[in-house]
Amino acid sequence: MNQYEAVFILTPVLSEAQMKEAVKDYEKFIKADGGKIVSAEDWGLRKLAYPIQKKSNGFYNLFEFQANPSLIAELELKFKRDERVIRFLTVKMDKFHVTYAEGRRTRLKNPKPAKA
User: Fold this and answer.
1) Distance CA 34, CA 51 (A)
2) Number of folded domains in the chain?
3) Residue 114 lies in a domain
């Protein structure tokens, strides 16, 4: 099994509950095919760099997961068919990327205290 990172942007017209439901749907989809979610982050509502489908904001989400390569094609097809997703990017993580991501998660959990 390889490790992957997927970032996807959901349309801002969704309510908070609908957004969370969409995220859970994708988590279930990954787990149903034998994948394992390593980390899931909700980055919240953010401004897009440029308008997409006449929208200037979107709900950003990040998944780090382990899965078989065959799952990626199915996941991306599901992203393309879903009206709630306006953009997505899936990347296979190499050993350096995995190390960096682990360090990043550690830094987010244990932030450095502010200097006086």
Assistant:
1) 36
2) 1
3) no
pTM: predicted TM-score of the whole model, two decimal places? 0.86
CATH label of the domain that carries residue 21: 3.30.70.60
What is the domain range of residue 79?
A: 2-109
How far apart, in Å, are the Cα atoms of 9 and each of 14, 34, 77?
Answer: 11, 24, 15
The Cα 56–Cα 34 span in angstroms is: 35
Say whether 2 sits in a helix, a strand or coil: strand
| 61 in any annotated domain | yes
- Chain segment 20-70, per-residue pLDDT in tens: 999 999 999 999 988 999 999 999 999 999 999 999 999 999 999 999 999
Residue in this structure with the two tokens 């990040």, named with its chain if needed? 62
The residues, any chain, with a CB within 8 Å of residue 86's CB and separated by 6 or more, are: 9, 10, 11, 52, 53, 55, 58
